[in-house]
Specification:
This protein is α+β, with helices and mostly antiparallel strands and about 220 residues long. It is built from six helices and six strands.
Length: about 220
C-alpha cells in the first residue's frame, strides 16, 4: 500500500497550523492499513512533519502505524541523492507486517547530489544560459513548490519562470509525460509530487529487500 496523506498543515511553505483538520487525515490511511493488511506499506509526507511543534503529530502517526500491526521505520530522504536534479526532502515511512519477521529499511543514497546539467537539454546545461546564481547548472535546483514563481531562470534579458518541459526535468518526469489541464495545474502537481526517480528507488528497494525475502 502506497499513500500520501495531506501535507498542507505541516508544510514549511504554508501556515503550519496545528489545528488544520487535514493534519489528522493520516488516520484514514491507518484505517485502510488495518483493513487491507498489506505485507508492506509506504507513506510519504513533507519534511515539516518532523520539525518544531509538528513532531507531536509525527509521534502520534508512528504510534498509530505500529498499532496497526507493523514494524515501522521513518527517514527524511532528499531526492537529489537518487538521480533527481532538485533539492527535495520528503519524510518516508516504510512498514512491514509484524508476522513476516522482516525489518523495514530505506534505500541508501545512490548518487552524489545530482546537478541540473546531468539530465537537462543542452540549452539548460550551458553556463551561458546563466541559471540564477543560487541554482547554477552544476548543482540541483531548489525545491519546486506548487506555486509558480518567475525567479528561477536568469537570462540576458532578465528572469523568467521555467517552461513545462524544464519543470518535468527538475522533477525527473519523462519528457513525454502528459499532465491534464494547463501549465499551472501541471506545476502544482510537480510541486506536490514525490519525484518518480526517488519513488523508483524506494519501490525497487522494497521489492528486493522485503517482498522477495518473504517465504
Amino acid at each position: 500500500l502506497d499513500g500520501s496523506p495531506p501535507c498542507q498543515g505541516f508544510s514549511t511553505a504554508g501556515k503550519r497550523d496545528f489545528r488544520d483538520e487535514r493534519n489528522w487525515l493520516f488516520k484514514e490511511y491507518v484505517r485502510l492499513l488495518e483493513g487491507l493488511q498489506p505485507k508492506t506499506f509506504v507513506m510519504e509526507n513533507v519534511s515539516g512533519l518532523v520539525k518544531g511543534k509538528m513532531k507531536i503529530v509525527f509521534a502520534e502517526i508512528m504510534r498509530s502505524l505500529k498499532g496497526a500491526g507493523y514494524k515501522v521505520r521513518c527517514r527524511l530522504m532528499n531526492a537529489m541523492y537518487y538521480g533527481v536534479p532538485q533539492q527535495r526532502q520528503r519524510v518516508i515511512f516504510i512498514g512491514v507486517r509484524n508476522d513476516l519477521g522482516l525489518e523495514p529499511s530505506h534505500p541508501r543514497p545512490q548518487t552524489p547530489p545530482t546537478p541540473l546539467r546531468a539530465i537537462c537539454p543542452d540549452a539548460l546545461a550551458s553556463r551561458s544560459q546563466k541559471i540564477n546564481p543560487w541554482i547554477p547548472s552544476w548543482k540541483p535546483v531548489c525545491t519546486i513548490t506548487k506555486t509558480p514563481f518567475k525567479g528561477l531562470i536568469k537570462t540576458g534579458r532578465g528572469v523568467r519562470e521555467p517552461t513545462l518541459e524544464e519543470l518535468k526535468i527538475f522533477g525527473s518526469f519523462p519528457k513525454d509525460f502528459k499532465f491534464a489541464g494547463g501549465k499551472q495545474q501541471a506545476w502544482e502537481r510537480i510541486g506536490n509530487s514525490v519525484p518518480p526517480l526517488l519513488m523508483k528507488a524506494i519501490a525497487e528497494h522494497i521489492r528486493d529487500n522485503i517482498l522477495l525475502k518473504i517465504k
